[in-house]
Each structure stands twice: as C-alpha cells, then as structure tokens.
UniProtKB/TrEMBL annotation:
Parts of the chain that traverse the membrane: 46-67, 92-116, 128-147, 154-171, 198-215, 222-244
Name of the molecule in the record: ABC transporter permease
Keywords, in A-Z order: Membrane, Transmembrane, Transmembrane helix
Keyword Transmembrane helix (UniProt): yes
Lineage, highest ranks first: Bacteria, Bacillati, Actinomycetota, Actinomycetes, Streptosporangiales
Amino acid sequence: MTGQLFRVELRRMVRHPLVWGMAALVLGVQIQLSRGQQPDLTVDPVHATGIASCLAGALLVVASLAVSRDGRHGMPELLAALPGRAEARTRAVLFAAVVVAVVGQAVVVGGYLLVRALSGPAGGRLDVFEPLTALGVGALGAALGVAVGRWARWLIAGPVVVGGLGLLIMFNTDPGSWWLPVMQTHWMDWPDRPSGPHLVYVLALAVLAGLAALLRHGRRPVAMVAAVVALAVAVPAGATAAAVRPAAQFPTGKTLTLGDVDARVRERYFGRDAYRCEQREGVRYCALSDYASWIPLWAGVVAPIVRAMPPSARDRVPVVKQYTSSWSYTYEDGVAIAPMAWGTDDQRRLLAQFLAFDIGGFDKACSAHGQARVVVALWLMGQSSTISRPGYLYMDGRMAARSGVDFGDTEVGYAKLLLQSPGARERVWANWDALMRPATTVEQALPLLGLPQRYPTSKPKGTPCR
C-alpha cells in the first residue's frame, strides 16, 4: 500500500507547477546574477545553495499541502472507509517529497555549476560539501513541510514557516550563524567554511523533521530511538560548525598587522605556497594558488598597456599581484593589484588603473591636477579599459587601503584626445622622459603630444603628487 501511495504522490509532486516553476526560476536567476563574472569555485556553490533554498521552500509548501489534504473538504469521512492508514499516507508523502526535493536541488545546483564551469577558466577551490548541503537543505525543506502539514493543519502554516526561515536566512549578516540551515555570508578571500559539520547538522535536522511527522501518529519505539539519535548527532555537529571563529572579525582602533590575522588566513593567503607566479611578455604575474588560471585574463588587460610604453621604460612595469580586499593592510608598494573577483568592466578598469598609475610613479594618495604624467597614465589605461572619474581605486566594491590619485576633467579630456590622435604612440615614446617628470604641466606637454589647448587649466587640490 505504501509503495502505491508513494508512486501516486511522486507523480503529483513532479507535475506540480510550483516545483518545476521554482526550479526554472532559481536556475535562471542564479545564472543571470553571475553573468559576466569568471566562475569562482569558492563562492559559486555557496551562492547556488543559498538561492536553491527557494526551491526547498517551495517543496516545503507543496509537501505541507499534500500531507494535510486528507483533513480537508470531507476527506476524513471518505478515507475512514478505506484500508489505508494516515501513517501510510504520511510516509508516502514524506518519501515522495524528499526524492523530488533532492533530485530538484541536484538538477538546479548541478546545472548552474555546469554552466559556470563552461563559461571560462574557473578560479577558487571547490568544497564538495557545499553542493551536497544544497541537497540536504532540499531534504530538510521537504521533511519539514510534511511535519508542518501533520502538526499544524492550517493551509497558511507552510508559507508562514517558509517566510520566517527565509527572513532569518536572507537578513543574516553574521558569518558565525551556523545554526541556520543555509549560510549565504561568505567571501572568496575568507578561510574555508565548516561545511562538513554543517552538512551533517542539516541532514540530522532533516531526519528529525521526518520523524516528527511520523510521531504525529503515535510514539513508536523505533521512531523515538531514531529521533534521539538524530538529535544526538545534530547538536554536536551544529555546535562544531558554530564554534568556528568568523574570518573577518578584528579589533578596531588599532593598526592591524599580519599577527592579528587568523592562522587559517595566514597559511592560505600569506604562506610559503600561497602564490603561483608566471612571466608573460616581460611582466611577472602572481596569483593566489587557486586562481592561477586567471593569469591569462589579467595579461589581456596588461599587455596592451605595456606595448604602448617605450621599450626602454618597460622596467617600470610593476609586478601584477592578486590581493584580498579583506586583508588590504598588507598591500605592497610598487605592485599592481589584481582583484579577487574578475570579469566585469569595473574589475578590468581597476587593474588597468592600478598598473598605469604605478607606471606613472603615483604610489600614494595625492592630487595630480595639472600634471602631464597623469594624462599619459590615463592614456595608458585607455589602451585596455575605459577612462573614468573619480580617480579613486576600488576593490571588490570596497575602498582599497591604498587610495587612488585625484585628477580632474581636464586630464581626462586630454587623455581621450590623445587616444584619438594619430601618431600618439610615437610622440609619447619620443618625449617619454619629459612627460613623466612631476614638474611637467599639462600645458607644457600639449605641444609634445600634438594636442590643441581645449580645456581649462587644472588647479592642484590637496597635496600635490611628487
């Protein structure tokens, strides 16, 4: 009898429009959100698990409605004449919901990760426990839906539970809240998450929820013992995950040093084997070991800038090195910073601007208004990126520790004219030494660059660059 009911419930759930509609929506939204970014195996599975919890929520509602069906619209009287028991119906809905949830999560998360893997060189390191957690969350949602449907027969009960859990997960910003089934707060330059214990915790919760649904029909010894065992697994697993110290919590009001960094961070990002370096067209690139596959992409931005420089000056090209924005106080001078994420125009512009301004000799926050070398630096930047204001450098959406160089519309305007001027490279090469002197003004450089005077004189603002 349970087997037949299971097949019936399975067919009903597979055909339910909320299930396949939510699966398609989740997959489409996640692909759209990551469009244009290089795949990162460190964060992509975390993001996929987070948004796939929407599908788990849909299964929770569907399962709660399915299991409470026999208590609505005169169904109790009709079912009382049948040989099947309520416990058999609960078991059938539970098994069917869990199967559909796990398969649905596997399709959504697996499909997303496959699309990401095919979209370009992947950086980061895959933690296999992360996508498995998505399957566990699906099973938890299905089992919890059956329990809610049996213990709270109101039709609104399932959506209320989904809404409550959704708000807790969505608005949680504490990276140490591992008692939640889903932890979306993570950044690519943080240490590994306690994903293994958390997966065990989620699976134990799923078993507890399923047993809670079955215990609605009576306290069976086997179910009681299984519930105790599941609880004995869930509590220490959750405590183990929650005990892991958040990665980015540091004391304020003091100058941070490498000694203040978590030991996991020191080993992964500052240890002896933290970087892999390559030499390409005379430029040295150093990427964190899990991101070496992105070096050719950085070279696509750097190479046009280097080729625009006179050969005699290419010894000024700094090392291109990847840094984490979370530990930005460890930046080195004379290094062009490659960001942790890659793919958007802003990230390309970030690298191009860091490189061009390092070549121009700008190594600290200052005012470059009226200096010829900032026009040349912007012209170099324009070889592989767009030129924009203000001149402050951003990393991953946050202000980097090393602020940028301030300049104005006058310098931007002349740099764009230079980009459109035939023979600009030859004139820059011929007058490189004069153009790169801090004392050379924009007005003095215009005849050297073959540009007409079109914009007003730019006045220094703040501390001039030296």
